[in-house]
Design goal:
Blueprint lengths: L5 H23 L3 E9 L9 E6 L4 E6 L1 E4 L6 E10 L3 E8 L6 E7 L6 E3 L3 E3 L18 E4 L2 E5 L11 H6 L4 E3 L5 E3 L2 E2 L2 E4 L2 E2 L5 H7 L5 E9 L2 H6 L7 E8 L1 H4 L1 E11 L4 E10 L3 E10 L22 E16 L2 E24 L6 E26 L2 E25 L4 E28 L3 E26 L6 E4 L1 E4 L2 E16 L2 E22 L18 H6 L7 E21 L4 E19 L6 E8 L2 E7 L3 E12 L10 E5 L2 E4 L7 E14 L3 E13 L1 E8 L6 E8 L2 E13 L6 E20 L6 E21 L2 E15 L8 E16 L3 E13 L9 E13 L4 E8 L8 E5 L3 E7 L5 E12 L4
Parallel strand pairs: 1-8, 1-9, 15-18, 38-42, 41-44
Antiparallel strand pairs: 1-5, 2-3, 2-6, 4-5, 6-7, 10-11, 11-17, 12-13, 13-14, 15-16, 17-18, 19-20, 19-53, 20-21, 21-22, 22-23, 23-24, 23-52, 24-25, 25-26, 26-27, 27-28, 27-29, 27-30, 29-31, 30-31, 31-32, 32-33, 33-34, 33-35, 35-36, 36-39, 37-38, 39-40, 40-43, 41-42, 43-44, 44-45, 45-46, 46-47, ...
Amino acid sequence: MPKFKPLHTRVFLTFLLVVIGNLQAMGRDYDHAIQGLVMDNISGDGLTPKIILMTADSVVIDTTTAQLEDNPYTGGKIGSYIFYKINQKGRYIIKAVMENYSDAYTDCELRSNRQSAIFAKPIRMMKVFHELPEVLVKATKLKMVMQGDTIVYNANAFNLANGSMLDALIAKLPGAKLNKDGQIYVNGKYIESLLVNGHEFFSGNPKLALENLPAYTVNKIKVFNKAGDASVMMGRNMGDQSYVMDVRLKREYATGYMSNLETGMGTKDRYQVRGFGMKYSNKERIGAFVNINNLNDNQRAELNGEWKPQDMPDGLLATKTAGLSYLYFIKGTDWLSSDITYTHTSSDNVTKQNAQTFLPGGDAYKNSYAKDLESRDLWKSNTQLHLTQEGFFTSDYLNLSYQHTNGRGNMNTETLDSTSVINRLLAENSIESSEFNFNAKSENGLRVFVTDMWRLGLSAEYNRNTQKSFAMQDIQYLQGTPSRDYRNPYTNAPNQHLKLSGNTSYSFRFREKSIMPEYIYTYSYDKASNLFYRLDKLAGRDSSRFDILPSAVNALAGSLDGENSYRYHEYRNQHEFSLNYKDLKCKLLKADVQVKMPIRIVNANLYYERMGRHDVMRKSVFFEPSLYIYHQSNKTEWSLTAESQSDLPDLTAMTNYRDDSEPLYIKEGNSDLKDIHRYSLEGNTTFHGLHQRAFSLWTAWHKTDNSTAYQLTYDKTTGISTLRPMSVNGNWDANGGMGFTRTLDNAQKFTTDNQILINYNHNVDLATVSGLTTSQRSIVNNWKMGGESKLIFHANDNYEFTLHGGGNYYLINSQREGFSNIHAGDYNVGLNTTLTLPWNFQISTDMTMFARRGYQHAEMNTTDWVWNAQLTRSFVKGKLLAKLQGFDLLHELSSTQYAMNAQGRTEIWHNSIPRYVMLSLAWRFSINPKK
């Protein structure tokens, strides 16, 4: 081990002492500031009292008045005050005085010269109530207001169909976009977490809240950048903010008990049973739900025009799911939560596919039909503990899950050239798999020397998967030899994954700037086996029972196909050293700047066995800098993010092997794969104005160097495709969008909500045919330009009409020989309304026309009229609701999808849920504690 020379040691220590001395000297020459927040003790709303600063002996030093500013912790406005030119260490007393409120106090202490500001504990003021005569005020309900950088939606201002869940409400929010996977975007920005009254609901699984929380329980929805634990503790942005949507419940549902139960039966054997219940108090929150239906999980008669035919789930799906959630408020901001969910799904999928593969000298075609039945059981459990003390926090997570799957299927395919059939495949298969997941994580922070912070994080994850599958494959070659290939393979493929990680960082604060060195260590281990048996090689094998193993162990071992079986172990060690600069200011842009400069060292070792050893060793050093710039003012905010990421290619793809376990798709390895590098640049901006006006722009650019593409070599005689991984350059994409929403009249009855989107994808791939010595570089340019627009007329709480429309234009071109450029589009226009009728009736309906035009094949140019409707009648003062729903009443819904990339184009048809009419009853009740 090398030793430092004494001279070098003395020079280093002298330099260190000089730096420390200079820092101390610099700290002596600065004044300091005292700042804090003030709010209503009950509502948490910001206040503007007179603030008096005093010494520990109650001598008045200065006075000021609090101002309303953005609240970085819960969104909205908060009262904020600041005192400057504080230069004496010691304790200070702060007093708040305001009419109709009792005087309130807090204190703070200046303990270090490196503190640019002292953050006092929030002052919570108690209101003094006086009896006032009742006054009736009638005002227009605002759908959306801006409070600093927080968007606040008023749920009561939106007309919804009776019985709607949270997803229907969010789909109506101006500037919001909800996709079929439950992902939410607001003004083009992705919502990272969906909260209910400030806390995650079922560990942040948004779909559970979206599909089970009744919309009538919601008071307001806030969208803002939420400060993380480190930022809350230190009183400044520590880089742990997240963009969240916080659903705030009405007061009558935020305490006590509430429940919502619904059951329904429909035509075509459709059914639904669901229930939701919750107990809420200042000490705990208990939630439970159950949802049983065969409406394709979340498929309903959509009534707001947001749903499109391409959002149609594939196949038929029956779901049974239930969950229990518990949240305990320990003390202050400390809490413990735990939840468990169980889901059983049964699916029936039928798929018809027509595919065209682009090849030099003439394309190849494939037609296929497949039917698959699958049953799946999933258990998930999540536990979180959050504790804070003065100058310390810890957040601990434990997630467990187990999944078991059974499936059977059959498939018929035929491969063709432009004139004749090349081969036909008849196949059957069965599969059984199980998967266990364990994930534990601990994040901790400690305040040091008042201004600094030390963080420590530990995590462990483990995955174990076992999969056993049988198949029967009968291939007829119509133009080559041999003329027939019959196989009965059995695969046993267990695998394990272990990942351990630890990170530590120290944030050093001097005045308004921070520097944070950080170290992250990650160890991962993967163990996998793929034992491939050819049961058709066994003497006397009954081909009609393809999914039965032989009784003799020796017989099974004798059918092992060594060329298509493998085992491997992979070890990976990663060391990341980074230097992060935060709280930098750019005066030119009036923006905050954060810079991260990490160096990551990756050492990977793969020990691979397949007809001998094929080991791969790889060591790389990656420099992955990132830049984040953010600006915020009263009416404008914008951000810019630039980053670079790198990774090793899949080491198993770098082994020299040839796998023909799928006879029509042969796979090979390539030891020459290169490290992958990804670059991205993203930006967005939002302007807010009068009349609930918001204007947003966003754009993104992504580029990948040495992307792993699978070179396709096609044998025109047999129809066999050989795939080999290759490192290719030239893949990149860009996208941008614009959103605009505002009211159009002084009465704020008319609102418009619009989005324009443009996407470009430059896709590069490789393809050739047998006999050619070089591959042809296939480049396809995909353009997609479109948008959506809504005009909403909100007459009053009983009547609302929405005219909506949208469309996309597709331009797909290539310089490849024989490629026919595509100029096509789709568009839609429709009307939906919600009307309150006499005798407690309400009708909601949506009629939308979806059209495709410009495609080369006539069957792709379609027009579909989709009509969904719902009629409700309430009883018992609104507690009982009878509901009649109709889905796809005109029976014109198409479930055909089209896709294109550099390798070819594909047309896929799926079976889909039939049109139906359903009658259901829903009961809701709540019990509130006596005041």
